[in-house]
Amino acid sequence: MTVPPSRSGVRPVSRPGRRLRKRRPDPLIRIIVALLCVSLILVLIAVGAILWRFADRNAPASGQPPAAETASPAPSPAVSAAPTLRPALVTGPPLSQPPEESPPGPSVDPDVWLADAVFIGDSRTDGLRLYGGIADVATFLCQTGLSVYKVEQNQAVIRQGENRVSVLDALGRGSYGKVYLSLGLNELGYFNPAGYAETYGRVIDAVAERQPDARIYVQLIIPVNDARCRASGTPYYITNQAVSDYNAALTRLCADKDVTLLAAPPELLDETGQLREDITTDGAHFRPEGYALWRDYLLAHTEG
Fold it and tell me: Would 249 disulfide with which of 100, 169, 197, 284, CB 3.0-4.6 Å?
């Protein structure tokens, strides 16, 4: 089709249509968006790490102790799998020296001496109840996994009939002339000797309040056998390094308390100060003959 000329005689020139130019994003905006994405990813990673760490630890941030439970004795008490705790730096230095003991007392009749005695402790004390031959004479307030924290917090762990009561409540319901305390194995996983001793001090005060006329015997933590512990899968934090640190703190505490402090029975230990390998089932607990030796040691170290 021919375009007619204009009045001026000039044909109009057809102009091609304009193309819309694509506007490129501002480089600054792209940088800001990228930084926001990176920041979001880092926040998600941090939140995930915090949630994982919180779920992985048994102890809440409030300082509640983790549960380092031990299994029931079969045939003797044994420590079960450990809670996940921060790694222990164990270099294996020698055990701390035991405190100066009171001289062995006169030979006593167990049926007479222990008639008014009560033993408070964890699975090791439960082993003494099972294999020490004194369960029909003395009273035992023990629980697998018992710790000074459970005692102080009045957790209902002692079965009496169809109910459970706390150690301190059960203690207050009787009348005793001797109270034997053996606690510390389950507390090693806290890596906090000072906190252990501080709590133990409050437990001693609570025991004295409920049994003001009783002689309180505090027993140092009996060492373990490191090699057997590792071989048997005993929780990694149960080591002689930890035992030594906790016993040192307990010794300092008892210097200011009206208690009798008892060292570990030497008959249970080898020449290096560790629990004898031939007398332990898992590196931490004893064979029946070991509990008999422990009983004899307690009967030989008496103080009225």
Answer: 197
Give the separation between CA 230 and CA 283, rounded to whole angstroms: 8
* Beta-bridge partners for 217: 180, 260
Which residues pair with residue 269 across a beta bridge?
A: 275
Length of the chain: 304
Strands 70-71 and 78-79: antiparallel
> Torsion over CA of 116, 122, 126 and 128, rounded to 10 degrees?
-70
Which residues in the chain come in under a pLDDT of 50?
Answer: 54-106
Identity at 126, one-letter amino acid code = D
**b or e along 195-230 (b: 16 or more beta carbons within 10 Å of the residue's beta carbon)?**
bbbebbbebbebbbebbeebbbbbbbbbbbbbebbe
Taking the C-alpha atoms of residue 241 and residue 91, their distance in angstroms, rounded to an integer, is: 7
DSSP β-ladder status, 156-160 and 139-142: unpaired
Helix (H) / strand (E) containing 164: strand 163-166
Tens digits of residue pLDDT in 168-218: 999 999 999 999 999 999 999 999 999 999 999 999 999 999 999 999 999
Cβ neighbours, 10 Å, residue 129: 21
Contact yes or no for 90/244 (Cβ under 8 A): no
User: Coil, helix or strand for 113?
Assistant: helix
- Cα 45 from chain centroid? 29
Tell me how far apart the alpha carbons of residues 280 and 295 are, in angstroms, rounded to a whole number.
16
Q: Per the omega criterion (within 30 degrees of 0), is the bond before 75 cis? A: yes
Residue whose token pair is 């926001």:
36
